[in-house]
């Protein structure tokens, strides 16, 4: 079974969160084992943990993965992402949003993930 790790900075209300959650559900329905990792989420449109449970994929939160630049929290998030990737061993890593994209791609490289994709969101 192929494994996909989806990573996003926050699952707060908005298009990138909706897209990531729908992608997780769709991949799970198609037989992929899906792990969705998000940073601290304070204003979700609905309960993401309940959505994950109903949609048959796993979700984890990393509180140190925050939107603003914070060297200490960024290093903690990078180390945790690396550990999660080594443990989960995804075939595909798909990052969403700037911070998750930056830290996730570094962690993916260090963990040896062979297929890494990034979707930028929220350009003004």
How would the blueprint of this fold be written?
Layout (H helix, E strand, L loop, with lengths): L2 E6 L6 H15 L3 E7 L8 H8 L2 E5 L8 H18 L3 E5 L1 H14 L3 E5 L5
Parallel strand pairs: 1-2, 1-4, 2-3, 4-5
Helix pairs in contact: 1-2, 3-4
Task: Indicate the overall shape.
Answer: globular
Poorly predicted runs = none
Widest sheet, order of strands: 3-2-1-4-5
Percentage of β-strand residues: 15-25%
pLDDT averaged over residues: 93
Alpha carbon gyration radius:
13 Å
The beta-strand count equals 5
Largest beta-sheet characterization: 5 strands, parallel
Which percent bin holds the helix content?
40-55%
Number of helices: 4
N/C terminus separation: 38 Å
SS-derived structural category: alpha/beta
Order of helices and strands: EHEHEHEHE
